[in-house]
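Researcher: Go.
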Amino acid sequence: MSWRVTYRREGRVERLRAGSLDEAMALLEERGRTLPRRETMDLRMRRFEPVQQVTARAEVVGPERLRAGIDVRGDGSAEAWTGRIRRRLIEQQAGEDAYAALRRVLSSSTSVDP
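Model: Structure:
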């Protein structure tokens, strides 16, 4: 089973392949956790705080066109989502961060029941 990881940051796109879900999640998490923070952006009519800015988007595409990912914000926080056309945020459970929540959802959707 082949997984693709697409990583977008500041207009650059990087496409990687992974042989398993664990490898894909490791690639996604490695890059997402090492991003520098952003400052507040002041424009003439509007001000954007770091939490309002998406600095990077990492997307995982798996079997049966499964699509999910992580949006990393300017303050270092992250949100996990799933969906092809309309993104739906993944709700984090107690003690989970966005990466663990994404891993939980992807693991349960790709597991094979006997």
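Model: The radius of gyration is 15 Å.
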